[in-house]
Design brief:
heterotrimer; A mainly alpha (77); B mainly alpha (264); C mainly alpha (225); A: 77 residues; mainly alpha; rod-shaped; B: 264 residues; 2 domains; 71% helix; globular
Amino acid sequence: MNASRAALAALVLAATAAPAAAEDGAAGDPHRWALWTSCTVVFALLTAFLVWTHRRTQADVRRLESAEERLSRLEKK
Amino acid sequence: MNAPADISHPAGMPPPAGMPPDDPDAGDRGGAYPFASAIPFAAHAAVAFAGVGWLDHLIASLAPQAVKQIGTSYLIQYYHVPAAISMYLFFLLCAVAGIVVLATGSPVWDRRAHALGLTALLLNAIVLGTGMVWGKTAWGVWWDWADPRLLTSAVAFLMYLGYSMLQDALRDDPRRAKFAAIYGIVALLNLPLVHYAIKWFGTASHPADVKMKTPEISMTLSVAMSVFPVFWLLVYRWVHDRLALAARAETVMARLRRLEEDVR
Amino acid sequence: MTGWRAFSTVVRWDVAREMRRRSTLAAMAATALVVLFVLSFAVDARRADDPRIRAGLLWVTWILAGAVGAERAFRGGRDAMTDGFLLAPIPRASLFWGRTVSTFLFTTAMSALSIPVFLVLFDASVPSAGLAWLAAVSLLALLGMSALGVLLASMTSSVRGGDVLLRLLMLPVLLPAVAAAVTGTGQLLGGQDPGIRPAALLLAFDLTFLGAGHLLFDHAAEDRT
């Protein structure tokens, strides 16, 4: 796991930690579910987005790797 | 190289030997936004992390007194409002970058416009999701056909979904950059029209917003407003670097194909 | 060729071709007929007596048929893949205005043809008092729709699957015009005075996208000579 991905993962968690942060004063609040739900929405969307872009990135990395192989084969010829 | 490349450094892979250094992408490595090359991705992430952590701390200290008056659902605003502001900022910048693309044909600004459009689409989904949950607690309904803000962002979502589909459909087309730029401009021009159309011709109405103004709440909101754009800019940078890597893979593959034909 | 002459050449050519073949108008009118019939069946036309709903159904019909017209604005003749004017060295702004006007004419003809069908299927009548306003609101909306359709269709026409893409791109942008047109039409059908707002918003919509088309068409339909 490289630095930028670790940082982003930590950020996603931090950015959606408000329900836990607010939990102290939330006892007996009928709208508590709303805060949890909205934070889950943010968390899910952000995570899905990052995973999706990351998978496409990996596909591009694989393409570059195969390019390297083809290139070294060319050099041998 | 077996480890996945750090996409914050899409050019981290040295150009394969034998390739002439005339790579069109060579000039814009790390150029996600004008200062990006001066600020390493990790430093940007650290600042955003510290900022969001500080915000969470503020929200926690705010919660007990705020909850007594209005309930926790009000805390949604600390995500929702900055996301909405950043979304409109990204829409604007996407159109501005599009104008630069049309005027100069710059591939650097094309990538910026593309990344801004995609990040704005993510922000748009977040704004809609959190807005609907908040609407359910504040207005009692998930969806309000008369709220210009909610409906403008819903229409914007459809338009920028179209923007990203246009980008995808024209992936291999040399006219992609121009066409996407045009649609980015058209979509931005339409936003004020949509806002007024819904304001004037909306069919229902919801109770007025509750305005809570204590110094603590205002202060926390202004922290959220300054911290979240830094965070969303980081996500934008991540998307931009991904696009840069994809473009790089594209040019390397094309050049390799030409080279293989020459050898044959 | 100067701008004005190029413009009138495009319009005259399009109209002449349409008079000879009637392919665009036939496609639009057939779409309008099918959509109107299905809609009136789906909502049970006898019971949908709210003028707002009726206006909405009429506009859904016109938008779907209008998208068919925009799609065909840049389709070439029988054996040409792209429209000849895209290849011709004429000012792009003139091509935009010419195509917008000819598309507007065909769309207006389609709307005029579909009104009697609408009145029969929904057993409706148009109050004579607001007739001029109704025509003005409709024409403004159809003009904006044509300008936007031509600008976007010039980009999507040469893309595979471009017709689907065109609708995806066009319909959300059209939304403010739809809101204004449906509200205005509905109030007029119900005998109310809609005031100046629908017309004002439609005028702003038209100016925005006629202006955008005028400025951006250069890039949307590059001179490929």
